[in-house]
Amino acid sequence: MKAMLCKAFGPAETLVLEEVASPVAKKNEVLVDVHAAGVNFPDTLIIEGNYQFKPPFPFSPGGEAAGVIREVGEKVSHLKVGDRVMALTGWGSFAEQVAVAGYNVLPIPAGMDFTTAAAFGMTYGTSMHALRQRAALQPDETLLVLGASGGVGLAAVEIGKAMGARVIAAASSAEKLAVAKAAGADELINYSESSLKDEVKRLTGGQGADVIYDPVGGDLFDQAVRAIAWNGRLLVVGFASGRIPELPVNLALLKGAAVVGVFWGAFAQRQPADNAANFQQLFSWFATGQLKPLVSQVFPLAESAHAINTLGQRKAVGKVVVAIR
User: Fold this and answer.
1) How far apart are CA 76 and CA 313, in angstroms?
2) Residues of the chain above pLDDT 70, percent
């Protein structure tokens, strides 16, 4: 099979497309013929050795895939050969086949194509877990979403609206904010032109946001924590800005606020029943048209490096996908 390989930590340009042996599914795994793979922020980190997991060389990046099951391990009972599935792989999806543990595989719902399925699992799974389990977002609360035009940001906008919140979308350009508006955002903040903190206070009558969804970190976190409401929850989702911020803990004390970590991958493994329930709700919202995943660019497997760089350089709107078949 063909696979895009990382043979040494470095930039995306060092990835190479080669012919390699097909993986073999273990007893608790399934072998998936990959049709499409989602590109996510961890892909930009894992190839440079900056992610919490460091796979042995050579490995393929790509943390999620959509495709058709070719083989089923003897200990996997809920899946069968021929099933259309989406899979959380961690790495390995930028290849024609990937072996993945059965508990990390879900059937693709009717009406969803492979490209959409490859763009769905990680972003919507992360944002659903963040807003439901970690923030306990309530109807009529105000949700501030940073990086609102990116994959997880747009998912958070849509899920927040589906949960009945008032959503303030924040992004760095008018073009990106237009995408968030189309996804259902009620209010918009361009933080390249105005103070995030001041605009949040203005839009909330000085009260601040009840829940803040932050996949960006850096300077925006510093402003956001100063624009949180009493009893607010600030969700730490990621650090796309490149800087991991530090929290003056007196700010949490003064607002009675909580700063809450979001690690969906660990949640999915530790609480599989809760994760499955999340996806049943997500699939229901998808079926009724409340969730409309945006795939802005699709690259062939040979151009995986370009796909990763498009995301890493924050040029992407919505999701970027690599087409394998």
Assistant:
1) 39
2) 100
Whose tokens are 């009493």? That residue is: 230
Determine contact, residues 154/164, Cβ cutoff 8 Å: no
- The model's pTM is 0.93
Phi first, then psi, for residue 297 (nearest 5°) are -145, 140
Percentage of residues in the chain with pLDDT exceeding 90?
A: 93
Joined tokens for residue 313: 């350089």
Question: Bridge partners of 228?
Answer: 209
Extract the tokens encoding 30.
């399934």
Domains and CATH numbers, the chain: 2-119+293-323 (3.90.180.10), 123-264 (3.90.180.10)
CB atoms within 10 A of CB 72: 21
Question: Model confidence at 242, in pLDDT bands (50, 70, 90)?
Answer: confident
177: which residues sit within 8 A by CB, 6+ positions away?
Answer: 148, 149, 169, 171, 185, 188, 189, 190
Tokens of 324: 């394998």
